[in-house]
Amino acid sequence: MTDRFLFWLNLDMLEYGLAHSLQKKINAEYYAISDAHESLKKFFQKQNIVNFKNIWYYRDYTKNNFTEPDMTYLKNFEKKYNISIWKLAYSEILFFDKIRYHKFSNKEILSTIEKECKFFESVLEEIKPNYVFVNYFSGHHTFLFCQMCKSLGIKILMHAVTRTGYRVAITSHVDALEYFDEPFPKSSTSNRSVDELQEWFQKFNLKKSVVENQSRYTERVTSFQKVTAMIKYLRIITSDDFKNFYGNSDITVFNILKRKISLKFKKWKHNRYLKTNFYYTPDLNQKYVYYPLQIEPERAISFGAPFQPNQLELIMLIAKSLPIDFKFYVKEHPLISWQDGRDFSFYKKIINLPNVYFLPSTIDSEKLIKNSSLVVTINGTSALEAAFFGIPSLVFGKTGWSSLPSIESVENLEDLPEIIHRSLEKHPDIKDLNLFVDYMETNSFEMDYRLLESNFFSSLYYGGYFGHDEISVNQVQKMLNENQKLLEIITNEHIKKLSKFTK
Asked: Do domains 4-161+472-502 and 274-442 have the same CATH topology?
């Protein structure tokens, strides 16, 4: 019987490129769900590069015609797929983010999710796919779809860019925060030195990759292209198609310009306020525990640690749990200025804690980690970085590296004082780090995924600035040809993964 492949097509077009490469190598029935705006939808309707038997357009089924939710259906749906709908809803930035244009009511949230559930059920029932191919996700709807597939026993192949930067895993884990399907091994034949291990870790620098690739495509974009893209975008957001998508109904040119001006003022006020009132210069010779703040809302927290207390509450719990002779350094995230900023009351509450010291985002994180006694994070990369510098750490959510003995997962907050005291006595073992590196290299492959991503965006969307412009078949074909080598790498790895499923 012929396999049925179902691809989730996003704006980034990476799964589309994968489908194009796979179709040359594997005889199967190819289908797709497109989470695409009207401009990209037009491309899919006229393209002949990939022979999809059918493409469903997600946005056609989730328009702003909110109806009274069928609570009986939703209740039965939760039981059938073992999915908590309110947990799912709370993970969606569009529903609860304070900076968005539209404030959703309970009725609108549940009505939207109900339409999604019925749409996904109809697609899955119609084609009964063997495999689903999806890029990492940030929205609740992709997560919902993958959870449904998992419940039905449909194999999922998801890209997971590991936090070691230039390595990619293909995982069947729905949350994509635990990278590997294979169990952690018990022994290793590798014998890397501490210096070699640190060199390995720093070689795959995710932050460096992101910065380099962003600068690579932004440098190509002229001022004229930026202005042209902005004009097209402003025209698009006033269209009926754009406004029909949930959460977009209140977006106007005036509201966007108003928000842009407001954000610039807030950022200036935010930075000035912190510099004037709160920043502390740390003494790295003191005994201290280090906590780097994470951005909120963020996918890693929404999906990887949905039931953990908010960061302010967590900081207070940690502060209560520290030994008397330790300081607690809390550092702001470097990208906080890209967002609306946190409420000033958040910072005031932190600095009022007697053993807590608030640090600016500009301080070198590596120095803070190296000189700390313990690193604490919800599920950030700093825990993994700490291990390679010989520092123990605590995490409160799912990670791809919590198998390391020096990284302890906190499950019961009441045990936090005991766990902290115990962790302060830990010292990462070089054997464990060698084991982890072997595990990482065995279950992932080396590839600059961010480069492929930036190449696609720069080819299609004015250097990655705006993604609502119409694209041509010739344009996409040229993009696929130019990135053939990178697509070949990721395609071959998917074929390897498929072969494991068929054994």
From this structure: yes
Q: Among the listed ranges 61-65, 255-259, 301-305, which one has the minimum average pLDDT value?
A: 301-305
User: Is 90 exceeded by the pLDDT of residue 250?
Assistant: no
> Cβ–Cβ contacts within 10 Å for residue 433, how many?
25
Above 90 in pLDDT, residue 72? yes
Mean pLDDT of 400-416: 87
Q: How far is CA 157 from CA 146, 468, 501, in A?
A: 10, 27, 10
pLDDT, residue 253, reads 74
Cα(461)–Cα(454) distance, integer angstroms: 10
- Mean pLDDT for all residues in the chain: 84
Gap between the Cα atoms of 449 and 483, Å rounded: 11
For position 455, what pLDDT does the model report? 84
- The pLDDT, as a whole number, for residue 176 is 47
User: For residues 266 and 446, what is the distance between their CA atoms, to the nearest angstrom?
Assistant: 41
How many angstroms separate the Cα of 190 from the Cα of each of 60, 197, 438, 441? 53, 11, 8, 12
Residue carrying the six token digits 């890029």: 135
For the chain, which residues make up each domain, given as ranges? 4-161+472-502, 274-442
Structure-derived torsion over alpha carbons of residues 295, 298, 302, 306, reported in degrees to the nearest 10 = -10
User: What is the H or E stretch that residue 77 is in?
Assistant: helix 71-81
Residues 6+ apart with CB under 8 A from 306: 87, 90, 91
Residue 469 has what pLDDT? 63
The class that CATH gives domain 4-161+472-502 is alpha beta
Chain Cα centroid distance, residue 378: 14
Name the DSSP letter for residue 274.
H
What is the SS3 assignment for 446?
strand
* Residues 6 or more apart whose Cβ sits within 8 Å of residue 134: 7, 8, 15, 142, 145, 146, 156, 157, 158, 159
Look at 92 and 182; give whichever has higher pLDDT.
Answer: 92
Cα–Cα dist 434/178, whole Å: 19
- Give the phi and the psi of residue 358 in degrees, each rounded to 5: -90, 130
Residue 160 · residue 304 · CB < 8 Å: no
Cα–Cα separations (whole angstroms), residue 139 to 142, 144, 295, 325: 6, 9, 16, 43
Residue range 8-24: mean pLDDT, rounded: 94
Backbone region of residue 83 per phi and psi (left: phi > 0; alpha: psi in -120 to 50; beta: other values):
beta
CATH of 274-442, one of 3.40.50.300, 3.40.50.2000, 2.60.40.2950, 3.10.20.30: 3.40.50.2000
φ, ψ (nearest 5 deg) of residue 357 = -125, 125
Burial of 275 (0-12, 13-18, 19+ CB in 10 A): exposed
Quickly state the pLDDT bin for 220 (edges 50, 70, 90): low
> Each residue of 296-330: pLDDT tens digit?
766 666 666 566 668 899 999 999 999 999 999 99
